[in-house]
Design a protein that fits this description.
The complex is a heterodimer. By secondary structure, chain A is an all-beta fold. Chain A has no helices and 10 strands. Classes of the chains: A mainly beta, B mainly beta.
Chain lengths: 115, 113
């Protein structure tokens, strides 16, 4: 069974930075697109970013372009989300998911942006 | 961006009765390759979402056959033939035809009457 375990969520001040990680196992990580999805407290789901299997291309929702960077290390079966210039509206539970169609999800890691 | 609109937003259902959720897109979800990339997810309270249906009507493994997806163009439906207690939670549709960005519906909260 696919395993996705996110980590790195924390309380951070506005303008601060955070790096999320997602450890993947039980599937061929290097063969799959990977995606970050977020869910603000009590709200719906929002696609944040996706990255190609070999990491050559990245795609972002407009609200995070220029602030967030998705990356991956296929040798470590790991996905990352570097988040800079964080804003209060970035407060959310961040999920990593397998593929563009979100075949499997992790349990999420909570990012809170507040002073 | 494609806007996905679900209805109803709240769905009280009696156990054993059917349920239906509608999802409408602001433009056709038929891709240039002829496929329609509309997917359905279920999020139980306190849990991560999980996919139920992909490409309109293909059910994921381990998803009970009481769940079915249908539709075409801009109108899609998720049906539950007989609601069980474990079906409570929020259901989301998502399109990936016109990606990026992928876009989700607002969610439909199913509760037991």
């Amino acid at each position: 069974e696919v395993q996705l375990v996110e980590s790195g969520g924390d309380l951070v001040q506005p303008g601060g930075s955070l790096r999320l990680s997602c450890a993947a196992s039980e599937f061929t990580f290097s063969a799959h697109w990977m995606t970050w999805i977020r869910q603000a407290p009590g709200k719906g789901l929002e696609w944040v970013a996706s990255i190609e299997p070999d990491g050559s291309e990245e795609f972002y929702v407009d609200s995070v372009k220029g602030r967030f960077t998705i990356s991956r290390d296929n040798a470590r079966n790991s996905l990352y989300l570097q988040m800079n210039s964080l804003r209060a509206e970035d407060t959310a539970l961040y999920y990593c998911a397998q593929g563009l169609w979100l075949d499997s999800w992790g349990q999420g890691t909570l990012v809170t942006v507040s002073s | 961006d494609v806007v996905m609109t679900q209805s109803p937003l709240s769905l009280p259902v009696t156990l054993g009765q059917p349920a239906s959720i509608s999802c409408r897109s602001s433009q056709s979800l038929v891709s240039s390759d002829g496929n329609t990339y509309l997917h359905w997810f279920h999020q139980r309270p306190g849990q991560s979402p999980r996919r139920l249906i992909y490409k309109v009507s293909d059910r994921d493994s381990a998803v009970p056959d009481r769940f079915s997806g249908s539709g075409s163009g801009i109108d899609f439906t998720l049906k539950i033939s007989r609601v069980e207690a474990e079906d409570v939670g929020v259901y989301y549709c998502m399109q990936t035809t016109h990606w990026p960005p992928s876009t989700f519906g607002q969610g439909t909260r199913l509760e037991i009457k």
